[in-house]
């Protein structure tokens, strides 16, 4: 599975209709919905906001008043065929006055998403686990150096120092085994 690093915007013109696609990395449906809301506010002159997303195990697509199965499913198929996850694609269509027909719409929405995917910086998707470790204050410099290539989500300074660290799930065992200090796992 793969995901993308940054949002990509592409514009495709088909028979005077403008298809503005936004390929968005997102880790939650709420995050995707915020993007959708913002794009709707910014492109008030668009007639349709068709989309699809694959966020973890959640999949959804919408034709937004385009003929059934001419927009959302073609976008979803592009995401799926490219093995993308935690990604959404919104295509805002500004009608150009010429009807495209069902086949034309299907091609336009699919190509719009595909063009954005071609521009995206695609990266391997990893599933992460959060590891909480507690240790004495005098060991913080060692731990800090050990976790420098990981995402430290939180640090707490109580009777001991507690780090919450995001670790790829397939590296968790090795990560814990190789910590060069005595520590406790916090639940």
Description:
This protein has 187 residues and is of the alpha+beta class. The chain is 30% helix and 36% strand. The model has no long low-confidence stretch (mean pLDDT 95). Strand 4 and strand 5 form a beta hairpin. It is built from 5 helices and 11 strands.
Q: Strand count, sense and closure of the main sheet?
A: 5 strands, antiparallel
User: What's the average pLDDT?
Assistant: 95
How much of the sequence lies in strands comes to 35-45%
CATH architecture of the largest domain: 2-Layer Sandwich
What name is given to the CATH topology of the largest domain? Answer: Ribosomal Protein S5, domain 2
Fraction in helix: 25-40%
CATH top level label of the largest domain: Alpha Beta
Structural class: alpha+beta
Number of strands: 11
Overall spatial form: elongated
- The spatial strand order of the largest sheet comes to 2-3-6-4-5
Helix-strand pattern: EEEHEEHEHEEHEEHE
Q: Can you tell me the residue ranges where pLDDT is under 50 for at least 5 consecutive residues?
A: none
Total number of domains: 2
- Specify Rg, calculated over alpha carbons: 22 Å
What is the end-to-end distance?
29 Å
Query: What would you give as the CATH superfamily of the largest domain?
Result: Impact, N-terminal domain
Please give the count of helices. 5
């Amino acid at each position: 599975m793969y995901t993308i690093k940054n949002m990509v915007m592409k514009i495709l013109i088909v028979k005077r209709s403008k298809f503005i696609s936004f390929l968005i990395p997102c880790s939650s449906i709420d995050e995707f919905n915020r993007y959708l809301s913002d794009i709707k506010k910014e492109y008030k002159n668009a007639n349709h906001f068709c989309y699809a997303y694959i966020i973890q195990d959640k999949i959804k697509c919408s034709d937004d008043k385009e003929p059934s199965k001419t927009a959302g499913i073609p976008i979803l198929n592009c995401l799926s065929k490219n093995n993308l996850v935690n990604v959404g694609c919104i295509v805002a269509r500004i009608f150009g006055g010429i009807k495209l027909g069902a086949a034309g719409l299907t091609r336009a929405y699919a190509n719009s998403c595909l063009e954005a995917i071609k521009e995206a910086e695609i990266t391997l998707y990893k599933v992460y686990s959060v590891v909480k470790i507690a240790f004495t204050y005098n060991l913080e410099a060692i731990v800090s150096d050990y976790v420098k290539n990981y995402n430290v989500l939180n640090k707490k300074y109580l009777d001991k120092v507690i780090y919450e660290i995001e670790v790829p799930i397939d590296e968790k065992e090795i990560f814990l085994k190789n910590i060069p200090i005595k520590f406790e796992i916090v639940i």
